[in-house]
Amino acid sequence: MKTKKIIALLGASLAWTTAGYAQETVKIGVILPYSGPFADAANQLQAGIDLYIAKHGDTVAGKKIELIKKDTGGPAADVAQRMAQELVVRDGADIIAGFALTPEALGAAPVAEEAQKLMVVMNAATSMVTEQSEYIVRTSVTIPQVNYALGKWAFEDGGVTQAYTLVSDYGPGHDAEKSFSAGFTEAGGKILGSDRTPVANPDFSAFVQRVKDANPEAVYIFVPGGAQPAAIGKALVDRGLAPPATKILAQGELTHPEALASMGETARGIITTFHYTLERDDPLNKEYVEGYTAANNGREPDLFSIGGYDGMHLIYEALKKTNGDTSGDALIAAAKGMSWQSPRGPMSIDPETRDVVQTVYIREVQEVDGKLQNVIIHEIPDVKDPLH
Amino acid sequence: MNQAMSANANVDTARQWLKRQSRWSPFEIVFWLALLLPFFLFPTYLPLASQIAIAALFALSVDLILGYAGIITLGHAMFFGLGAYAAALLAKAGWSEPLTGLLFAGVFAGLIGFITSFMIVRVQHLALLMITLGLGVLTLELANAMSWLTGGTDGLRVPRTWPIFNYFRFDLWGYTSYGYTLAVLFICFLLSRLLVNSSFGLALRGIRENVKRMPAIGSDHHRHLQKIYTISAAMAGLAGALLAQTTSTVALDVLSFTRSADVIVMLVLGGTGRLYGAIVGAIIFLVARDQLAGINPQYWYFWIGLLLMVVVLFMPKGILGFLSRLAGRRDND
């Protein structure tokens, strides 16, 4: 009887001490494709996270922030789910974050739901991601958000009445095509034709010829980054499809700084839509870019970096609001409706959908100081994802 | 008279040999009991353990055709993926009962396996490699193109699988998942064991050793190969379905070339042509991956490559082949 009591006491004190210890740290599990074809995106996102921690310290509401990194190796839903499970049951993570790719987020969502943990999606850009669990919040962008806005703008302010769409034949390409077309036709524009190019190693010349035959005022394109922006830029110019005669519309990755360098002159005049513009003239952005390049051997931040940076901001602010309470319910309540000034501009979290609401920028590639760069020509404030 | 007697004697020894092969050794019993240890010793590693069991089942299916029948394949993820999508789509249609879902996926993958087997048995060596690779890539592209059905690059969220026997709920810790996957692995292993230690299994080995000779002794090698290919495809489909059911998600990566290649790596590590080689290979590959990726999430594949080179150079018959040589035991085949 006595021994039983002692054991119970020991157990209780042990439980108490571990609870006491847990109060000292907040463990954030970061699930990203650190290896494989998307490793570069993961590294940029991680650099955004690291920069935020370096700037704001690793203690929030009296608790120390501890990161646990897990590699998925690519768009593997099953691996992401196992990582999330292990983070929760083995490592005792309080928050799960990261997710460069949609399948990763879909894989981890059931774990966040069951374990009732805050899940911060820092990139994955398909609309439906935040609908998978009440505990998911997103700090990046959605493809419909920027492309629907671009379609609407093209008809209302861009002076385009009919257009042709040319997208890569995979999920994000399909989403982009659908949302641009929706924004454009709902405003009153007409889509002359839609084509889809293979995802891997496409030869654009035949597709571009078809676009030329349709003789549109503008062509909307969506291709994955890497070698394709330069290839499609060249194919368009070769067929004489170039601004100002034919407007070229696209999502921001097409003309991000590294792509611009490889596209050269062919990029001039391309109009893109995005939530983050490296060159945006703003003190907060300047400070962010300077800090980032200094910490990363001169590498400039991109869309992944800003998603990670703002994701950490959300986690920090939510922890401050809850006074260090890490329960999923408290954190998600704190995150709903939160709004702040980010290097990308003003942004907030929709209290209903837990998705990001932000300014969408329409940019045109122009020459500034002898160098081609994205210049903001229009701003659309407080854009929500149109699909929720 | 004399000849007939010696022929009879030959049949007897073959039978005895098969009988000897199918006897359970104490090693095997210990091995299977050891697979229960994660429940008690490493309960926080159960999600990994169930993925290992799934990978082992997939590797087992490839071992049946590669190790026993000599069909080299670089596209077996095709059947794994078909099984995963079959189970997932059935669940999406409103039927999430695990066992019938599993059966449905196995039958579906087996059916596709049977259809493609007509093509497979006509070619050998490099051509076989190219055909299996091509079929795998085609299936992947087809799934990508049919994104309205498969979810495309984004993947598919599947409704949660119903409890097994309406009792064992799929829990966060993975107790049910591991129990379920291990049970299916064990049953498939028993079937494979019966298969390879039967006269059919012997015929397959004959085909592996010399394709031209088998017809000469009156063995219909096309029919044999078709049979084992169909069985193997169905088994790979079961593995895929297990993955879809235990993780409630499917993405295009179930069909990827990497999955087809990884399973070959597992087999080479463990040792081809041995049923246990598939299981040991899957354990080594995934545990090494988990540990190495934990140490360095960026460059873990380097160490896998190194391990693979060491094994291929110094243990050409895989880790199991090496161990059995160390133990001085005769090779199983």
UniProtKB/TrEMBL annotation, chain A:
State the coiled-coil residue ranges: none
Q: Which residues form the signal peptide?
A: 1-22
Q: The Leucine-binding protein domain covers which part of the protein?
A: 25-366
Source domain of life is Bacteria
**By its UniProt entry, which Gene3D superfamilies does this protein fall under?**
3.40.50.2300
What keywords would UniProt list here? Amino-acid transport, Signal, Transport
* SUPFAM superfamilies according to UniProt: Periplasmic binding protein-like I
In the record, biological process GO terms are: amino acid transport
InterPro entries noted in UniProt: BCAA_transport (IPR051010), Leu-bd (IPR028081), Leu_Ile_Val-bd (IPR000709), Peripla_BP_I (IPR028082)
Record Pfam families: Peripla_BP_6
Similarity section? Belongs to the leucine-binding protein family.
Instruction: Write the protein's name.
Output: Branched-chain amino acid transport system substrate-binding protein
From TrEMBL, chain B:
- Where does the record place it? Cell membrane
Q: Which UniProt keywords apply?
A: Cell membrane, Membrane, Transmembrane, Transmembrane helix
Q: Identify the GO cellular component terms for this protein.
A: plasma membrane
Matching entries from Pfam families are given as:
BPD_transp_2
Q: Which one of the record's GO molecular function terms can you name?
A: branched-chain amino acid transmembrane transporter activity
UniProt key word Transmembrane helix: yes
Q: Please give the InterPro entries that the UniProt record associates with this protein.
A: ABC_transp_permease (IPR001851), LivM-like (IPR043428)
- Can the keyword Iron be found in this entry's annotation? no
Q: How does it sit in the membrane?
A: Multi-pass membrane protein
**TM helices/strands, residue ranges:** 29-46, 101-121, 128-149, 178-204, 225-244, 264-288, 300-323
Q: Which PANTHER family match?
A: ABC TRANSPORTER ATP-BINDING PROTEIN, HIGH-AFFINITY BRANCHED-CHAIN AMINO ACID TRANSPORT SYSTEM PERMEASE
**The protein, known as:** Branched-chain amino acid transport system permease protein
